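User: Is it possible to get a 3D structure for a protein together with its bound compound? The compound here is S-adenosylmethionine. I've pasted both below.
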Amino acid sequence: MNKNNQTHNLSHHKNRAFKPEKINPPRIFDSKSWQWLTQSKNEIVLEIGAGKGLHAIQFAAQNKDKTIIAIERTAEKFAAFNKNAQPKNLANLYPVHADAIAWSVFALPAQSISQAFILYPNPERNNANQQWLNMPYFEFLLSRLKNDATITIASNIMEYLDNAQAQSTEVWQLPTTREVVDKTSSRTHFEIKYLARGEPCEQLVITKPAGYVTRFDNDNP
Ligand SMILES: C[S@@+](CC[C@H](N)C(=O)[O-])C[C@H]1O[C@@H](n2cnc3c(N)ncnc32)[C@H](O)[C@@H]1O
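Assistant: Yes, that's possible. Here is the predicted structure of the complex:
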């Protein structure tokens, strides 16, 4: 079916459709190694742009009943993440060196994620269509979430969050709350740096309601 013609019953107003069939698999990828995702009893948590992994490592250590998959595409940051994670020996932490878009298209089943984090994403000031909520890919990400799953997106750039909030409510039609990040928070290296400089940090918590319909609810490419 042509996904572009299938807009009548969608839960959102994004016309441009993501095209998963145009995405190549990550360079190092073995689909078999992710088959466990279809039958995991643990809640699966996804972090996109995990940097050196501080948040993912802390989260895994504090939430042994959940499994966190944390994706970072920059080789240097991923190497630091791996180095930090290895001595902790956390069986519920999966550091992934890949582009999150390609990895999620090839590895993630629909409706498999209970919580997602995008913490201090690149602001993409000169290329706003690369901001996560401006991208057609965001619909694919929503399709991978379970009902009532949340996406937490934090930033020190208020214009970024203003736009993301407007996109979330007006285009994606999603319940969205906005919170100030506590000054003592230390989830990521960027958060520590921004709060130490006295910059305001805020976050959106976006919920996928039950019954939310996307073009990708049953599809894998
Ligand atoms: C500003 S850094 C923040 C890193 C970390 N979350 C923190 O707060 O310290 C944004 C990170 O997202 C990563 N990133 C951006 N787009 C990505 C993508 N499509 N897939 C995986 N990682 C991505 C970048 O490589 C970068 O490390």
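The CA atoms of residues 147 and 210 lie 5 Å apart. Confidence is low (pLDDT under 50) at residues 1-5.
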